[in-house]
Amino acid sequence: MMKIYIDEEFAGQCIKIMSEYSEIYLSQIGVTETLINLRKRLSSREFTMAAKLFEVDISTFNIIDFDEQTSDLAVEISQGTNLAILDAIHLASAISVGSKRIDFLTYDKAQRKAAKSLGLRTP
């Protein structure tokens, strides 16, 4: 999500890919992670503006709750990998959506590899 609010490598590509989807899912933890990262990387004034834009965007997203089942799945997914904790949680959240076909957008190589191994498409 950071790429939408901070001009960094692949930002334009990320925005283009996301605009192609009518439904976007984001874990509740992703909401927190994005806001914390924005606060760390932006000035106070820039953060206020970015947070307002983010709030508008997430009002159209499907927010995935983080529950015990998703937590257990994240632990299972992380077994035998070098995934960061939040990366495993995001993958578990995507899988928890269930029967819907999920495309998982990531720019992290380890997370992309894990997503593919779990049967998620990675645009």
CATH fold-level name: Rossmann fold
* CATH architecture type: 3-Layer(aba) Sandwich
Strand arrangement, major sheet: 1-2
CATH class: Alpha Beta
Instruction: Give me the secondary-structure category.
Output: mainly alpha
Question: What Rg do the Cα atoms give?
Answer: 14 Å
The largest β sheet comes out as: 2 strands, parallel
- SS elements, strand count: 2
Portion in beta strands: under 5%
Compute the number of helices.
Answer: 7
Instruction: Give the tally of structural domains.
Output: 1
The average pLDDT is 88
List the helices and strands and how they pair.
Layout: H1 2-5, H2 11-19, E1 25-27, H3 28-41, H4 44-58, E2 62-64, H5 68-78, H6 85-96, H7 109-117
Parallel strand pairs: 1-2
Provide a compact summary of the structure.
The protein is mainly α and 123 residues long.
Task: Describe it.
The protein is mainly alpha-helical. It has one domain: 5'-nuclease (Rossmann fold, 3-Layer(aba) Sandwich), CATH 3.40.50. 60% of the residues lie in helices and 5% in strands. The chain has helices at 2-5, 11-19, 28-41, 44-58, 68-78, 85-96, 109-117; strands at residues 25-27, 62-64. Strands 1-2 form a two-stranded parallel ribbon. The longest helix has 15 residues, at 44-58. It starts with a helix and ends in a 6-residue tail after the last helix. The mean pLDDT is 88.
Keywords for this structure?
123 residues, Rossmann fold, 7 helices, 5% strand
